Amino acid sequence: MDGKVTISRLQRMKREGKKSVGLVAWDYQIARIADRAGFDFISIGDSVGVNLWGRSEVLDVTLDEILICCKAVRRGTERALVSCDMPYGPVQNGKAAALAAARRLIGEGGADIIKVDAAAEFSEVVRALVDAGIPVFAQFGLTPQTAGKYGIPYSAQNSPAAQASAEASAKLIAEAKLLEAAGAALLDFTNSGPIAGAAVAAAVKIPVIGGFGGGPWLDGRVRLVHTAIGYGEKWLEATTETYANTAKAALTAFTALIADARAGRQIKG
């Protein structure tokens, strides 16, 4: 599709049965490539600390740090919608702190929409952001920390929502409707599975998008750039299916460069 992607356009795609596709990324060059490829949205995730910077804790990312990533992606993006995660802290500290942080991500970072994690626990914050004119991409669903409240045993091998009982699905539908009523523009359903995922997508009018544990039963998918292109040291030995293996290509290129330099040959490029 041509032209700038907007929230209303993503919502229209749901009504028309068209799937939206997003990429989690953090830098200018990948944003440029992703934008040219035709992704509908680029999401600056707080997972940058673990996936790009080698940290052990996903919550250990500050507002100032994610602003750097947001600005870089914004500079590299012309067509796609830009979503930026609210880092851990502002939402947990209440509506005023969340509003101040969101305004920085919109005003300084250039984000089009703000992602709020565990949004079902903070629906009043979602409402406050929306009332202030800030669009919200609300995350909810099943994680190792939350699966228990739905009565579902979390398993890394089997998506917990795939085993969801009717009662558990009803609770997830209720959360989705709560977030829709709070004004969320998009939903990010973690670990949806084909049962609860399909039920939630049918129960709300706004797009339900999934990354980890998502699938074709949702209105759209978002994929981590590292997973999509095999970018990361672990893909040197990994057997996980990817659309490319950048890690192996980089290792081959680096090995050749080192060999040329040590042999006194002219280096390519």
Task: List the keywords.
single chain, 269 residues, TIM Barrel, 8-stranded parallel beta barrel
Explain what this protein looks like in three dimensions.
There is one protein chain. The chain is of the alpha/beta class. It has one domain: Phosphoenolpyruvate-binding domains (TIM Barrel), CATH 3.20.20. It has 10 helices and 8 strands. An 8-stranded parallel β-barrel has the order 1-2-3-4-5-6-7-8, surrounded by 7 helices. Strand 4 (113-116), helix 6 and strand 5 (136-141) form a beta-alpha-beta unit. Helix 2 (28-37) packs across helix 4, helix 5 (95-107) crosses helix 6 and helix 7 (166-181) runs parallel beside helix 8. It is globular, with a radius of gyration of 20 Å. The mean pLDDT is 92.
Using the coordinates shown, work out and report the CATH topology.
TIM Barrel
Estimated structural class: alpha/beta
Strand order of the largest sheet: 1-2-3-4-5-6-7-8
User: In percent, how helical is the residue content?
Assistant: 40-55%
